[in-house]
Amino acid sequence: MSQTILLALVYFAFIGVHLLTRRYVIFTWALLLLPFLIAPYFITHDSAGVFIWVKLFSVFIGIAALDIFRFHSVLNPKWLGPFIYLLLQINILEAVIAGLNAGELYNMINALAGAILMITLTGISSIKVDKRSKYHSLKWGSMGIGWIIFYTIWNWAFIVMNFPDVAGIQLMALLAAFTIALKDPSRWLQTRAYTLFAAFLGIFFYFKHAGTYTNGGMLSPLDTTSWADPDLFMGLALASITYAVIYLIRFTKKELS
Predict the structure, then answer these.
(1) Are 130 and 171 a contacting pair, CB within 8 Å?
(2) Number of structural domains the chain divides into
(3) CA torsion, points 234, 237, 238, 244, in degrees to nearest 10?
(4) What is the DSSP string of 49-95?
(5) Residue among 181, 118, 196, 197 nearest 154 (CA)
(6) All residues at 6 or more sequence positions from 233 whose CB lies less than 8 Å from its CB, including other chains
(7) Which of 165, 164, 162, 187 is nearest to 176 (CA)?
(8) pLDDT tens, the chain, 257 aa long
(9) Measured distance CA(194)–CA(129) in Å, rounded
(10) By residue range, what is the domain housing residue 200?
(11) Per-residue b/e over 221-230, b at no fewer than 16 CB within 10 Å?
(12) Element (H or E) spanning 140, and its range?
């Protein structure tokens, strides 16, 4: 089976994750149990670096809190906006720092775009759980498709520059969230959170352990290491910073008007 077809199947799998996590809280809690079940094995096999573990559990914290906000009354609803906003900012900041530490010019250009992404993220007060809806969806009322496009370009540029082997899987996760955003931008973050978490869980099965990744591992046909190309990296970095500057100019004009 070709890599393109496999990636398309991964995309539809992420759409499935969105549908299940939106409709069934039991599925989200089952998803949250997986890191604890797989952690002992993958820690002993040293399957992933620190960054992947930090990202996995930072997203885990966000999803666990989101589920509590969505379906229970344990936490004060007033905390939702600041909590979600801070978590997304931290998530972006982690990648910005990692990009700067990578040291290449294209990494630093994209990191600058990431900093602009953080500056232009607003609308804390519009973050709410829609308790009137059937599925109690998280909605970021002021979230616009322009910022989502910005995030998608920047984030995939970061991934392919630093983790080209899993760039295909992560691109499908980004596109799944973007697909939902085309219909309703306010629901983008909820979809992004669940699909990102699912992507990281998949990566733990994807990373090499005992040589199986490079020698026919479970998901080795999805290896996109061949996408690693300095010219592609620079092109993505320039696209990211160009969009960032244009978006920042429009954002500033809107804020000052």
Answers:
(1) no
(2) 1
(3) 180
(4) -HHHHHHHHHHHHHHHHHHHHHH-SSS-GGGHHHHHHHHHHHHHHHH
(5) 118
(6) 104, 106, 107, 157, 160, 161
(7) 187
(8) 688 998 999 999 999 999 998 888 788 777 777 767 766 666 665 555 566 667 777 777 777 777 777 777 766 778 888 989 998 999 899 899 999 999 899 999 999 999 999 999 999 999 998 888 888 888 999 999 999 999 999 999 999 999 898 899 999 999 999 999 999 999 999 999 999 988 888 776 665 443 344 444 445 678 898 999 999 999 999 999 999 999 999 999 999 98
(9) 16
(10) 3-256
(11) ebbbeeeeee
(12) strand 138-140
Q: Which residue has the tokens 């998901």?
A: 219
Tokens of residue 168, six digits: 């295909």
- What letter represents residue 201's amino acid? L
